[in-house]
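To close the section, here is one more complete example, presented without commentary so you can practise reading it yourself. The ligand is adenosine-5'-triphosphate.
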Amino acid sequence: MTALQTKGRGLPESPPAHQGQEQSAYVLSAIGIAKTYTHGVWPRRRYSKVLRGADLALRRGEVVGLVGENGSGKSTLMKILVGSVDRDAGTVEMSGSLGYCPQMPILYERLTCDEHFQLFGKAYGMGDAKIDSARDDIYEVLGFGDWRESRVEELSGGTRAKLNLGLALLPDPDLLLLDEPYAGFDWDTYQRFWQLTEDRRDAGRSLLIISHFITDAERFDRIYDLVGGRTVPR
Ligand SMILES: Nc1ncnc2c1ncn2[C@@H]1O[C@H](COP(=O)(O)OP(=O)(O)OP(=O)(O)O)[C@@H](O)[C@H]1O
Ligand SMILES: [Mg+2]
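Output:
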């Protein structure tokens, strides 16, 4: 396991949710994550303390939910795990490859779905044959192959969400971090999403899934509630 960054300024404010276990027993382990955002400039500067020592861990082959109300800090915590937002305190350790599906799709309006897979596949260091077969599997599983040659600007919100998820799935990562992946899905796609999740779990892959509500709690191995800046295991 590689320590991504270790900024740990001081001890976590609460005992880690996975206290008593070696941090290296997990594919992902975050301990004591703290984050305060600063708004405005002096003398009108304001601070919002979003995370106050959040702990989170995933084992191989686990599907874990992260739930909390709007603005509770779920996306902030996931961005810290991915490394796109700096944390003020805490440690993050991760092993294996990582896929991330952001809450707001980051797509290029003028490129087609096929062109996105090609672009991202190259960035992941995949060969053409591997990109083609992984891309076709994703079209099949999520059911949007009819849109393969359409530009993003022509896609519905739900199809954009499928492409956003598909790009995270493309390199078949060991660990998938998904920020509200099914918010825009219709019922059929929602069912396909859970089939895909179960298949990944069976293959020993791990998934962390953010949702602001969970209707199918039994689909998760474990759930954390994010409350008051801390994660509370259910
Ligand atoms: N870049 C930023 N600068 C300042 N404040 C921010 C920034 N990003 C998020 N925040 C604030 O941090 C808090 C947590 O935001 P975050 O997006 O992490 O919440 P969330 O739990 O993902 O919410 P939602 O369910 O609406 O997606 C909110 O009050 C938000 O306004
Ligand atoms: Mg969010």
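Once you have examined the tokens, check your reading against these statements. The chain has two domains: 2-96+213-233, 106-173. The CA atoms of residues 134 and 170 lie 6 Å apart.
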